[in-house]
Amino acid sequence: MEKLTDLIHLFVTVFLSGLAFLMVFPAITDVTMTALCPGQDACSLAIYLSGFQQAIIGMGSVVVTPLIGNLSDQYGRKAMLTIPLTLSILPLAILAYSRTTNFFYAYYALRTLTAMVTDSGINCLALAYVADNISESRRASAFGILSGILLASFVCGTLAARLLPTSLTFKIAAVVSMISAVYMRIFLKDKVLDGENLTRPFLKSGLDETHQDDSESPKKPPVFKKILTLGDLISLLKCSATFSQVAVVAFFNSLAEGGIQASAMYYWKARFHFNKNQYADLLLLAGAAGMVSQLVFMPFLTPFISEEKLLSIGLFMGFINMFLYSISWSIWVPFAATALTVFIVFVPPSLRSITSKQVGANEQLCSCPKMHLLNSLVSVCYALDF
């Protein structure tokens, strides 16, 4: 499949899944503060728990994501997408039932465990599905559109959070998450990889590790023996200069963004007394700017501007955005800074496109967990910083 329209069912699945998660995102800060520090605008415990959770999720993703990727090579992307889409329903169902302190801790524990699969699994499997079905020359646009779909779900989810009461938000989010899993199982068409069309197979193939003779068919190594290690990442960095450069950029960009994401909402609540509606307004502006950028500007610019230049623009604007956040002297500053999101969202699809072009057809998902290993190290860094 070479047409972007052939990815429509994947886009719908990703949209619904993102909608369910992002619908509760503006409300989760207030829910956390109410459960942990009722009646207060500042809560260090909430920040510590958030940093710890992200560190655990990042480290767990390093183990789980390669395993899901290897299994998806054997059983298909669709079969493995079922697992994270199903698991993502459970934490939402808990808060849909109750948001008291005990239920919040149950949500926190279950969310920490399931996010090891869902946060990286859905994203990486979706990216791998796109790479399986789109040629190299069109992947930058396809990745940009996929990011645009995620931002569209961000906008719709934030708008829903703005209009719905908190008690109803979690119930609807749980239902939408269920619909996402059912829709994917019914409509998404899988593609079986034969592993014969590798364009840049610098990753070690499983066939190289098996013994073959004239009378026996090749035996695949056990999936559980192919879990990613730090040594695998180091080996990959040594054999690919481009991937090494991408990894360095991704590490420091994730370090900066991770720190902002883990603390910004609590910072705004403490400094400007933000509530759910103001969070939703801010996120809505950022999401709308990013959606327009990914769905309109990015596909238009990629034929004329290289991924490297788009990446440079996005990184510089990201620096300006974080600098403005750090010196916010009035409540309007964070809202004004959201205009820079138009350029900031160039970064993820540019990194993905550059990385994707370094690997072959059945290696697309292998590169994704390696990037998550870097992100997990980032999570540990800012968790310790808290």
Features:
mainly alpha, disordered C terminus, membrane, 386 residues, MFS_dom, single chain, Growth Hormone, Chain: A
- State the CATH class: Mainly Alpha
Stated plainly, the CATH topology is called Growth Hormone, Chain: A
Radius of gyration over alpha carbons?
Answer: 21 Å
**Structural class per helix/strand content?**
mainly alpha
Could you say what the CATH architecture is?
Answer: Up-down Bundle
Membrane topology: Multi-pass membrane protein
Pfam family, one: MFS_1
Keywords: Membrane, Transmembrane, Transmembrane helix, Transport
Domain Major facilitator superfamily (MFS) profile: 1-192
Describe what you observe in this structure.
The protein has a single domain (1-192, 226-383), classed as Growth Hormone, Chain: A, CATH 1.20.1250.20. It contains 16 helices and no strands. It has helices spanning 8-23, 25-36, 44-75, 77-87, 89-97, 101-133, 136-163, 166-187, 230-239, 241-272, 276-301, 307-326, 332-337, 341-344, 347-356, 364-385. The radius of gyration is 21 Å and the shape is globular. Helix 10 packs across helix 16. By secondary structure, the chain is mostly helical.
